[in-house]
């Protein structure tokens, strides 16, 4: 059989790459209405006219600079793999912007075929595109297609095969960038050719342009490869930079970009596109955008929409959350009644049922939240949010593209920092990316929600939704300030421009919404079932072992014997056999005294356990923020996974209880505990919101950045959170706000 031909699919985000990829390979990839969904490149196989083909779906990029991880992935792939054809998918309804990437692909010298996609959208908008004219001017084959329906894809593949079978020399397309720059390029090219500088990788002209654009990756490669020639080239660049700065007050980089746009504009204006002016109407999307992204009304709508999402999530999920709680309560009762007393029983109830139940209990809430986010995402509104937020994000040294990571991490509440950290891959500049990556864990992820709900419910029950909203806003404020701090210290650097096309509004399909909701909910459940189960058993073990020494439990046993002896055997038998609620007189008194002893024993044994020792040890400093040793245990557990904070608090506060069916809800128990009040609740909340990310997130940060940054994140957040909690607790206590 003939060996497979390699083809790559390149294009702007949202141009329809994945749709085309799925159509011609038959694969099922995630198709989104949000720019930047595809992060890693994906491969698919197909056979066309008995020629096997390997097709790679590259990450969507607006350009081929070294600004973002995505752009580097795409560029490195093209340079290292040298696919036989690059299918450049271009959104016909946004021709000019899309051709910017085409221009850069031509500069790289890649063998191109242009797939002119979204011809239906262009037509709906009254835009007529003359593909043959475009083909003639660009000197590249152009095939109009509609990826969604597959129209034109056969012809596209035929053309791609034709190009693949031709001899192709990777040669940079000649575009003029003004006399000054062109002169410098010529000088550089002759030097590059003479020294064979990186010529095995790039066409000489391309290397020269990249040097002029101060492309970090190329500068590093060149510097390592041939330092002497590299510095000769940088000298030429410095020279011309000085000149352009003096004469035009800009760097060569901007001049080059301007001329690329000029080149594109001139092509498009030469009869490639004609607008159907007699239908001089506003397209529906534009009409909607007039309102939804309006300078003043836009943000108001945005806050209103987010607030409604909130109310929806919390009020509608209340009922099913209650059902699940009851179900796990019932399960615990069944286990209590059927399992023999001992370690096994304690593990099943305190470790497995409480731990996993605590997590699964919130599935409805998370599902409602994700459903809401899916509506925003699939309709195209989320992209508008990013667009509007860019103005604000910029102030804090972030970027409009940071919004998605923040929202995914729990910016609207619910969510998870793990995908949030991964979503930062779509950010352009490394510094903005790092700042985003380090601050997304401040958001209220789905795992922090239960704690928030518990504490606000217990101490601020009247206005719970309002408080939850406040704490979400607070998370944003703190994250922004932290980002600003990072961007003006360790991550100092210039901002990068924001170009994001707003995809047209589309009516979300129910099927799409359900798939999105389920995918994310399932991720959450899987995490609960595996990592959290293991951790909650581990924590149970830490809270159980070492067991109380024999002498000490003997003391409690003899106390019990003494009390029983005082009341007599008959009363004791009554206590053992009757339901607790039905006890009267002496029997009731005995039961209470016994319960009091049990409770002290449980407390002594928790204190004696590994977790108790850590918790007690930390009281030395944690008292500053008002945390007692039980809270400390939960917080230490929370580092493993925030989900376990509530369940650990539950365990720590229930171990002293008499029997499962007698225990009141954890919220009530905290309310009546003398160590807890409004001030300590807020201090604990703040600490939980901002301290070290859970270890899964930390591992992700390490993978995306480095272990050094991961360690930085843990330390920075914990110190910061503890400072904040201490401040609030001390001042609040001083003012007697509790
Ligand atoms: P990618 O970011 O380039 O991978 O783009 P996607 O394949 O995810 O497509 C973005 C959106 O455009 C999706 O909602 C697609 O359904 C839609 N889309 C793709 N091709 C076409 C087309 O030819 N016509 C129309 N009307 N929509 C399309
Ligand atoms: Mg895609």
TrEMBL record:
Q: Where in the cell is it found?
A: Cell inner membrane
In which residues is Mg(2+) 2 bound? 25-26
Example GO molecular function term?
metal ion binding
Locate the residues binding GTP: 11-18, 36-40, 57-60, 117-120
Bilayer-spanning residue ranges = 296-315, 356-376, 396-423, 435-461, 467-486, 524-543, 679-702, 709-732
Tell whether Iron is among the UniProt keywords: yes
List the residue ranges forming a coiled coil, or say none: 573-607
Membrane protein topology class: Multi-pass membrane protein
Which Pfam families does this chain map to? FeoB_C, FeoB_Cyto, FeoB_N, Gate
Q: Which keywords annotate this record?
A: Cell inner membrane, Cell membrane, Coiled coil, GTP-binding, Ion transport, Iron, Iron transport, Magnesium, Membrane, Metal-binding, Nucleotide-binding, Transmembrane, Transmembrane helix, Transport
Cross-referenced PROSITE patterns: G_FEOB
User: In what residue span(s) does the FeoB-type G domain sit?
Assistant: 4-166
Gene Ontology CC annotations of this record: plasma membrane
Residues reported to bind Mg(2+) 1: 22
What PANTHER family would the database entry show?
Answer: FE(2+) TRANSPORTER FEOB, FERROUS IRON TRANSPORT PROTEIN B
Q: What does this protein do?
A: Probable transporter of a GTP-driven Fe(2+) uptake system.
Concerning its family, UniProt says: Belongs to the TRAFAC class TrmE-Era-EngA-EngB-Septin-like GTPase superfamily. FeoB GTPase (TC 9.A.8) family.
**Official protein name in the record:** Ferrous iron transport protein B
